[in-house]
Amino acid sequence: MAIEDTLARAAADIERGDAGLARHRLTSLRAQYPGDFEVRRALRDACRAALDPAQAGRWGFVLEDATAEEIAAYERSRGRHPREMVSQLSWPADAPAEGPAGQARLDRLHRDVRALPKEERAGLERQSGEDGSLGFDGVACGCVILFAYTLLLLALGAYQFQQILRGWLG
C-alpha cells in the first residue's frame, strides 16, 4: 500500500474517532519510512486525537511545529534522560530535523547523549550518531580472554591425554 493511501486511511480513522487504529497503521508505516516528516506528523496528530501528549511530543520532536507542551510531556515521560529519549525517538542519526526549531531540539539531545558516561551510550550509535564500537581496548581484551581460554583447554586436554596414557601403560 502506498504512503498516500495509508495516510488517507489513518486520517479517515481519526475522523471516525478511531485514533488507535490510525496509530497502528501509522506506526507500521513509520517503521518503513523512519525519516518521513509527513508520516511523523500524521502519527503525532493521531496521538493528539487520542489525547496522548507525551506520544505526540515523541513523534513531533523533530518537527518544526511541535508544541512546547507536547515536547515537555515527552521529556517527562522518559524521565528527561537523553538515552531513553533517543532510543524512543526512532529517528535516523544522520537525518536532519524538519526545521531550525526541530534541529535545535535534536542537536541539544545529541549533545546531552554525548555528555553521558560511555557505558550509558552503548547501543545508541544508530540513533544518536555516536560511535558505539568497542575500540582497540575492547577488542584487545576480548582477544586476550579468548587466547587464555584456548590455552586452558589445551592444558586440560594434555593432562587428560597423559592420564589416559598412564592407564594404558600401567
Brief summary of the model shown:
The protein has helices at residues 3-15, 19-32, 37-49, 53-60, 68-77, 82-89, 100-114, 118-121, 125-128, 135-169. It is an all-alpha fold.
Descriptive report:
The longest helix is centred in the last third of the chain and has 35 residues, at 135-169. This protein has 170 residues and is mostly helical. The model is unreliable at 126-135 (pLDDT under 50). The chain starts with a helix and ends with a helix. The protein has helices at residues 3-15, 19-32, 37-49, 53-60, 68-77, 82-89, 100-114, 118-121, 125-128, 135-169. It is built from 10 helices and no strands.
Give the uncertain stretches in residue-range form.
126-135
Number of helices: 10
- Terminal Cα separation, in Å? 78 Å
In helices, the fraction of residues equals: over 70%
Radius of gyration equals 26 Å
Q: What is the strand tally?
A: 0
Roughly what fraction of the amino acids lie in strands? Answer: under 5%
Structural class: mainly alpha
Order of helices and strands: HHHHHHHHHH
Mean pLDDT: 85
Shape: elongated
Largest sheet entry: none
Question: Features of this protein?
Answer:
170 residues; mainly alpha; elongated
Please specify the SSE layout and strand pairing.
Elements: H1 3-15, H2 19-32, H3 37-49, H4 53-60, H5 68-77, H6 82-89, H7 100-114, H8 118-121, H9 125-128, H10 135-169
Helix pairs in contact: 1-2, 1-3, 2-3, 3-4, 4-5, 6-7
